[in-house]
Each structure stands twice: as structure tokens, then as C-alpha cells.
Amino acid sequence: MSAAPKSRLPASLQPTEEDISLLLAAQVHIGTKNVEKKMMPYVWKRRADGINLINVGKTWEKLVFAARIIASIENPSDVCVISARPYGHRAVLKFQSNVGAQAIAGRFTPGAFTNQITRSYKEPRLIIVTDPRVDHQAIREASYVNIPVIALCDTDSPLSYVDVAIPTNNKSKHAIGLIWWLLAREVLRLRGTVARTPDAWPVMVDMFFYRDPEEVERDLEGIAAAKALAAGEAQEAIEPAQPDWDISGAAPGIAAAASTTLPSAEAGSYSLSPPFSSPHSISIQVPSPPSRAPFSCIDWAADQNTTSWADDAAQAPAAETPAAAGW
């Protein structure tokens, strides 16, 4: 049995054991049942169920090759990353924020590379697409203006007008996010921004993964419920608040006035005598409420005296008509 071909990359660019573990955990090597003729060199073998497996070693070599191309461009904004597939929207936006490239997440506007009248017109020196089949419009327009193309290609992806193909699973959200994260990290390493140590880049790979809006809403609701519960427990733990005033150092008369209980009001006279010494006394006379006769109900049905409103109207004298005023 022949030994596996040795990688042509230098020692500094070789993948670590952790990198290979991440690629396998994200199922980057899982392809499809169909294989394009130009993608045959990247297929390692075919499983019993018909799924083609991608060679992870070649995936890493092409990823480093693409990172070297991106790092060679002086102006980072001359690189345009594109993803019409929803699983790649968050990844390209994070790639833009970390590397400095332009990002097109969502529908690609036709004429963005060829029509100078459109507002979305761009002149990039390099474009990177998530799926050549979905992003075919961008690849076709890039071929018209001689823009090189880097693409994440599955085993069934067409390679027309694709200059650099990174063999990977481009249908899984974890595989897409991991490849974009590794590509951004490798570009920063080649630029010298990030050292080649495991913890040199603090950005986690989870930031590049697609998240369902319903999942995000559930997480926010859970966080809000946890905060409300913690606030309720903290409120119960707080002791009763003490009054903001203190009469311990006040004058004796004021302290006695503050501690005196006022008598309840009664019908008749109410006298308020201040506890402190005063030459005058205060007396307030409150009159008693008037007595009322008991309420009696009137039975209107027992009243036999009926009144005819028509007879009353006939007996009333006719109103005199005022004379018309002469003008």
C-alpha cells in the first residue's frame, strides 16, 4: 500500500492537530453523491452509501493558497466576499469586519461589476464566493471584467470561471462558517497581524456560524427571564429601607410634637392643643351633620290622577304672532 503524498507546504503553514479536528467535526469532508469531472482530484473515496468524501489535506492546501492570494493585495477593500446562500451571510460579514474586505450578503445585484451607472457598482481585484452554483451571476460578471475568483466548491459544484477552488462542504452552516473563519485567521497571520499561536486570535469560530432568527429570539427571551429572576431575588434580599430623617438630636418640643398621636375626630368640637408651650390655644368647632328624613318611595302606579297633555295644550292661549317688521 503506497504511503500518502507528503504536503508541499512549508512547516510554518502545516495544519495542527486541532485544525484537522475542527475540519472533521464541522463535516467539511462530507461531499455529495454527485461529482463534477474537475472536482475528481479532490475526492478521497466514495462511501458505501454513495457519499463522496473530500480530501481534507487538499482542502487545507487550497485554503492556505487562497489566503496567500488575499494577503498579497495591498488594499483590503479591493477584495469582495459574496454569499447569496443564507448560511454564509454572517460568515462574510464577520470576514469583512476582521479582514477589511467588502461584503455582499444576500442577493447579488446584476451589473454590480459591469454597469457603472448603478449605485452598487464595484471594481474589486478579487472576489470570493460561497457557492459557485448559487453565486453564478457574480462569477459570470467577474469573467467579463477579468476579476479572479476564489470559490468554496463541493463535489458537485461547477468550476467554470473559477480560478481557485477550495474543496469543502458548502451546504452545512458549520462547514461554511469554519472555512471562512480559518481563511480570515490565515490571512491575518500572513499579514503579521496575528501570531501563529493557538490563542493569538480571540475571535471564536462560533461568531461565523449561521444562527436562525427564532433561535436568537429564544436566547434573548431566556436572558431577559434570567435577569428578571435575578432582580426579583435581589429585591427580596434587600432589608426594609430606613427613614431618611432622624429626630434624636432635635429640640425637646419638636421631638414631642413628632411623637404625639393626634386624637380621632368626633362630631361636635375638635380641639387641637400643641404640645409645645404657646401663648395661644387653637380650637376648631366642627358642626354636626344635619339630620335627614328617612327616604320614602313613591308608588306611581297607585296615583289615579292622570293628566292629558293634549288638553293642556288646547287650553293654553295661542301665542301672538309678532308683526312683521317693515324695512
Helix content: 25-40%
Give the helix tally.
8
Largest sheet: 5 strands, parallel
The total of beta strands comes to 9
Terminal residue distance? 132 Å
SSE string, helix = H, strand = E? Answer: HEEHEHEEHEEHHHEEH
List segments where confidence is low: pLDDT < 50 over at least 5 consecutive residues: 265-272
Task: Indicate the radius of gyration in whole angstroms.
Answer: 44 Å
Description:
With 327 residues, this protein is α/β, with parallel strands linked by helices. It contains eight helices and nine strands. The chain has helices spanning 17-25, 56-71, 89-99, 136-144, 173-191, 213-237, 252-259, 309-315, and strands at 43-46, 52-54, 79-83, 102-105, 126-129, 149-153, 164-167, 268-272, 282-286. The strands form three sheets. The protein has a five-stranded parallel β-sheet with strand order 4-3-5-6-7, sandwiched between helices. Strands 1-2 form a two-stranded antiparallel sheet. Strand 5 (126-129), helix 4 (136-144) and strand 6 form a beta-alpha-beta unit. The protein is elongated, with a radius of gyration of 44 Å. Mean pLDDT is 79; it is low at 265-272.
